[in-house]
Amino acid sequence: MKRSNELLAGWGNVRPARCSVLRPGPEQAASSIVEQVADNTWIARGLGRSYGDSAQNDAGVVIDSTARNKILRIDVEKRTLTAQAGASLADILSIIVPAGFFLPVSPGTQYVTLGGAIAADVHGKNHHVDGSFGEHLESLVLQTASGQRLLCSREQHADIFHATQGGMGLTGLIDEATFRLLPIESTRISVVASRTSNLEETLARLESTSSRYRYSVSWIDVLASGSALGRGWVLAGDHVPNQNKEPLRWQPKAWGSVPFFMPSSLLSRTTCGWFNSRVYRRGIVTGDSVSLEQFFYPLDRIHHWNRIYGRRGFIEYQAVIPTENAHRGLAGLLERIASSGIPAFFAGIKATGAAGKGPLSFLVPGMTLGIDFPWRAGVEDLVDQLDRWVIKHGGRVYLAKDALLYVDHFRAMYPRLTEFQAICDRLDPERRLVSDQSRRLQIRSQD
Ligand SMILES: Cc1cc2nc3c(=O)[nH]c(=O)nc-3n(C[C@H](O)[C@H](O)[C@H](O)COP(=O)(O)OP(=O)(O)OC[C@H]3O[C@@H](n4cnc5c(N)ncnc54)[C@H](O)[C@@H]3O)c2cc1C
Predict the structure, then answer these.
(1) Best CATH choice for the domain 188-411 from the list 3.40.50.300, 3.30.70.2520, 3.30.365.10, 3.40.720.10
(2) Residue 418 Cα to ligand 1 middle (Å)
(3) pTM beyond 0.70
(4) pLDDT averaged over the chain?
(5) 394: CA distance to ligand 1 center in Å?
(6) pLDDT computed for residue 260 by the predictor
(7) Which ligand 1 atom is the nearest neighbour of the CA of 175?
(8) Closest C-alpha residue for ligand 1 atom 51
């Protein structure tokens, strides 16, 4: 098995760590992979699309699972797919779309592995209707650090099944998984876009579109303040029936790649302000329908787009605020961001539905805000302020995007932590499973 010493980072490129990376092939038994790292601390890694430090392990082992990407079965009758956990959503889409299916839940990029999607219990633009990825998972096979191979489902090892969803790789190596597929007739999404002039209007529009459309999301002009705070565009959509019975094709196109890290001075408050007000004036879509690819994966068209933020990288911040506090909570977050002087390019708000079953699953019913900040002086303080505000309003931060949370804040946000720790201790009494994130947040129990 190949092993190399590498500097690894999350998609935000902050705080890289030197790790010993193991790259097992598709035929290697998961048990022998774990045996090989039995004397080390280790964590699994997918395509490295989590933004922070959850898929790296400073001075320890990282198991890169991306070569274990076989699609094992599609059951058209039962509408399920089974694959090795290193299969990317892009690999899966290339098989399921021509067969008339789509992912039941998709994050905003297809360059995520099945294992990464389960470990973060990812959500999509349909969370208000369909919940997170775990809701659609039938079963998973977990290789634990203590050498057990467990088939987990709602019926078997149900607590481990749920803890692995959102468990950020800390229950073991997900080897393969089976999930339900969504039947589709065409590769188009009908869209309705409407401009809003403040936060109240944005949230009201999101609530009303959420009850009528499968997909709903908003883009927020993050630099607007005062009476325009929270203005933006709300985008809602549904799968389009196939009137012409055309064959379904999946041929995503790339526009190109950002070849090197751009100078971070390009991202000033002026350029961000110009960009945001231009999008606000012009809108985010044209026409009444778009392709699946345009609707779900617009950023995937530019490979390595994260290099736009420069070598110093960026922080992607995502928090959810429960329904009863959503308006006040989000207004406070946007006010703090607007007055911080720190530029931000992309921000969006989504309505969220039922909570996932995992003790560390992120979403609860309410509204979630996602926003990115180029890494610079002041970002840590701003994020700390935002975290305190989120806690005050009963919310939490998404672990797949976190890079800066403090232990105390994490504990206040995730009240089921001890339940999760007990499961991890049972599966891995020697505490081999560790990531930089789990060390920073003390996600595993301490002696
Ligand atoms: C452009 C972009 C858009 C995004 N949009 C969304 C979105 O809309 N919704 C959303 O929920 N998320 C979103 N994300 C986040 C992303 O979906 C998650 O971070 C996901 O976990 C990344 O998967 P990965 O394969 O890259 O995993 P990595 O980033 O490599 O790892 C993430 C976690 O999964 C664990 N893991 C990976 N593989 C395995 C395995 N085989 N067994 C056990 N644990 C494993 C790792 O240990 C780590 O804790 C987005 C990310 C990007 C870059």
Answers:
(1) 3.30.70.2520
(2) 23
(3) yes
(4) 94
(5) 24
(6) 74
(7) 41
(8) 49
Q: Mean pLDDT throughout 348-373?
A: 96
List the beta bridge partners of residue 74: 81
Q: For ligand 1, which residues put their CB under 6 angstroms from it?
A: 11, 43-50, 54-55, 65, 85, 107-109, 112-113, 115-117, 119-120, 122-124, 168-169, 173-174, 299, 400, 435
Task: Using the structure block, give the residue that is written with the tokens 């922070």.
Answer: 52
Question: Which residue type does 181 have?
Answer: L
Class of domain 2-64: alpha beta
Residue 369 in contact with residue 330, Cβ under 8 Å?
A: yes
Q: Which fold would CATH assign to domain 71-184?
A: 3.30.465
Residue 445 has pLDDT above 90, yes or no: yes
- The partner residues of 180 in beta bridges, in order of sequence, read 80
> Domain segments of the chain: what residues?
2-64, 71-184, 188-411
- Of 100, 90, 124, 103, nearest to 215 by C-alpha is 124
Asked which of 21-35, 175-189, 252-266, 408-422 is least confident by mean pLDDT, the reply is: 252-266
Whole-number pLDDT of residue 246: 77
AA letter at 212: R
Indicate whether 134 pLDDT > 90.
yes
